[in-house]
Write a structure and sequence with these properties.
alpha+beta, 26 helices, twelve-stranded antiparallel beta sheet, about 45% helix, binds aspartic acid
């Protein structure tokens, strides 16, 4: 095994001497290093790409780009300050909110380190090293292995590589598969598990426009928050952090969005995409739409209940509206029709080349698998939705499975129940109490049962008496749950707790589903690489792999767009637009302190949000948006409505990501929060010029 020095993904197709990475593409650090630097310079990059990432040293400006609970974030001070989106730290704010101390509504600012608020489950990973392990993973699959055996062999090899990697103190590792197994990369990160809330604006700023404006433009949202990472009780000293640019951006400027995009579907065949549309996104819109109404109804007028479900409700809202956007975008952009044509083109190309016979066969089999999966898609979705549904059911199913896995040797357990996961699982089970509100959980449970029963699914062919279930279970008590956490299967059974009994009854269905997912993943690992090789070769140019929550770079420019005929959107909004939208009513209620400060400035001169044509998706939330010198000019937080379905295909005409302008953040901190200490710490105290180059502390 060696550090990646060779661009395998492009090598699978036509390896160009140097890559050109404009517009479309969430590029890996390795691909960036292979890029056409002169071309990037022409576009606006002013630092050598080696400043972004130095593979030999495992460091560079990208090392300041961290992952925080599935979101992206950037270090902005030598003393561990992290800037990310308000919606990324919302759970941490909710964790510390109570009706008599409603931080969600009021916001929070720690004026001293002692006032910072610890996050029970908040963790940050700092990237360190990427190693191509494709050969090792492929070699682990025995000759003639069927799909299930293939999956098991890949899984076992990945666990072995991860465990070797985590021998380094503080290391958190994973093996990421790119495009279903075209490449496997072992990623070593450094994990920081002591992360404390430093600043969150009032919700009325951090989420200005709420669900009305979510996924929309023009936008006026201060979607930022700050945390601080600690190591051994002291502020963490990152090797790199982003200097803040007070000069900001203007239309046409070059920017880069650095972050951890979660999941895209561009490498799927048209048939597979159609499955995602007809089940996954349709059901997300429908089921989560219902759950949103249920949670709102069950907590109406109850302050404690409203705070308890705030975080779950926010993420359900985000996911449900995203699903609607995907469905609308797929239709509007005729994306699946276009993909069908693209698939046919590649098939015709491959059929003429005997060396691509495997690709032709792989494509046919991928399509067959997609057709087969339709039969169980609704049931599969409902079983998976336990993860976003009633907490009591999620906890009970986890406890039941944990008790069965714990007796196995560590390397043979389900990955989620290996020793390395147990502290975080326990933390989540404890912390979830802050999100538990009995009436809401029961109402969700009723909906879930009804949907399962509607499919005639044993073991839940009829709706049990939910109130009785909740009345008798002890899974909903944090203290009891933590006791159960260490109990054996026999002890759990002996409790005769009805929620646990329900989980025991569901366990075979969950296991069967897990088994079929594994088999499917094994088939995909066998088929997708062959098909992708043909797709990339036919394209004759570098192709960025689908997002998989690994570190990526997108090169972009500040730019408006035309959402529909006769309408042109500019790329920049300002405080003036926020005031224009102000109705005084949620979600357009500008707080008094902001109104007062706004009256003292020319609001049109306080930039608020801006658009760029970066290639982003969920998980890119909180991504540092930097200028050509690597200085922070904003934070990515959203995409425009017309661009939600870019997860399936990039359309340059509407590919726009939404960024919060760092100048609004600076204005708010200075004029409204009077947070001079924080401003000084990030080197943006009034009147101070930004550092000229990406800062390193040593
Ligand atoms: N707002 C987004 C999110 O929820 C970011 C995106 O999908 O573009 O993650």
């Amino acid at each position: 095994m060696k550090n990646i020095s060779f661009l395998r993904l492009a090598a699978a197709g036509a390896l160009l001497p140097a890559l050109l990475l404009a517009g479309e593409g969430k590029w890996t650090p390795q691909q960036v290093l292979q890029s056409n630097e002169a071309e990037l310079r022409k576009q606006g990059l002013q630092i050598p790409v080696s400043r972004l990432w130095n593979a030999a040293k495992g460091t560079g400006l990208l090392a300041a780009t961290v992952n925080i609970g599935g979101c992206s974030a950037g270090f902005v001070s030598p003393t561990g300050l992290i800037l990310t989106n308000h919606h990324c730290l919302f759970g941490l704010v909710q964790e510390h909110s109570r009706p008599d101390r409603d931080l969600i509504t009021k916001g929070f600012l720690a004026r001293t380190p002692e006032e910072e608020l610890p996050g029970k489950t908040t963790r940050v990973t700092v990237p360190r090293k990427f190693t191509d392990v494709t050969k090792a993973v492929e070699a682990a699959v025995p000759q003639g292995a069927d799909d299930l055996a293939r999956n098991r062999a890949i899984d076992a090899k990945q666990k072995e590589l991860v465990s070797g990697c985590e021998k380094t103190a503080g290391a958190r590792c994973r093996v990421a598969a790119f495009d279903g197994g075209l490449q496997y990369v072992l990623i070593e990160s450094f994990e920081l598990s002591d992360v404390r809330l430093v600043y969150a604006p009032p919700r009325a700023i951090g989420e200005y426009g709420g669900e009305v404006d979510n996924w929309m433009w023009p936008r006026h949202t201060g979607d930022f928050s700050m945390a601080r990472a600690y190591l051994n009780g002291k502020p963490y000293k990152p090797e790199f952090y982003f200097p803040i640019s007070t000069a900001g951006v203007k239309p046409g400027d070059f920017v880069m969005v650095l972050g951890y995009p979660g999941r895209t579907m561009r490498s799927l065949t048209a048939m597979e995409m159609a499955d995602m549309r007809d089940f996954y996104f349709k059901l997300r819109a429908e089921v989560y739409g219902e759950w949103i109404r249920i949670l709102e109804e069950a907590t109406k007028g109850n302050a404690a209940g409203t705070i308890a479900v705030a975080s779950s409700l926010k993420s359900l809202n985000n996911v449900a509206k995203n699903a609607q956007g995907q469905l609308a975008g797929l239709q509007r952009g005729r994306i699946i029709e276009k993909q069908t044509a693209a698939d046919q083109r590649v098939m015709a190309w491959a059929e003429k080349r005997p060396e691509y016979a495997a690709a032709v066969a792989a494509k046919k089999e991928l399509d067959q698998l997609a057709a087969q999966r339709r039969a169980t898609a609704v049931r599969d979705f409902l079983l998976q939705s336990i993860a976003n549904g009633p907490l009591a059911l999620r906890h009970a199913t986890q406890l039941v499975r944990l008790s069965a896995e714990r007796v196995k040797p560590d390397m043979e357990r389900d990955a989620e129940y290996m020793e390395r996961e147990l502290p975080r699982l326990r933390d989540r089970m404890e912390r979830d109490q802050k999100s538990y509100f009995a009436a809401a959980d029961q109402a969700l449970m009723r909906s879930w049962f009804q949907r399962m029963a509607a499919m005639g699914q044993a073991p839940i062919a009829e709706v049990p008496a939910v109130e009785a279930l909740y009345g008798a279970t002890r899974v909903t008590s944090a203290a009891e749950r933590l006791k159960m956490f260490t109990e054996t299967t026999e002890q759990l059974r002996a409790r005769r707790d009805p929620m646990l009994e329900l989980a025991f009854a569901l366990d075979p269905a969950l296991r069967a589903q897990q088994q079929s997912t594994r088999q499917h993943d094994g088939a995909v690992a066998r088929l997708r690489p062959a098909w992708r090789r043909a797709v990339i070769a036919e394209a004759g140019k570098p192709v960025a792999p689908d997002a998989n929550s690994t570190l990526r770079v997108s090169f972009a420019h500040v730019k408006g767009y035309v959402p529909r005929e006769a309408v042109t959107y500019g790329p920049q909004t300002s405080l003036a637009g926020m005031l224009e939208k102000n109705t005084g009513e949620d979600p357009f209620a500008v707080p008094q302190a902001v109104l007062a400060a706004a009256a003292r400035v020319d609001a049109a001169k306080v930039p608020l949000n801006f658009l760029a044509d970066a290639d982003t998706t969920g998980g890119n939330s909180g991504s540092p948006t930097v200028n050509g010198r690597g200085e922070l000019v904003g934070l990515n937080f959203d995409r425009v409505w017309e661009n939600v379905a870019n997860d399936f295909g990039y359309n340059p005409a509407v590919a726009r990501n939404v960024n919060v302008d760092i100048r609004f953040f600076l204005w708010l901190l200075k004029d409204v929060e009077k947070a001079d200490g924080l401003l000084a710490e990030i080197g943006a105290a009034p009147g101070k010029a930004p550092a000229a180059a990406p800062a390193a502390t040593h």
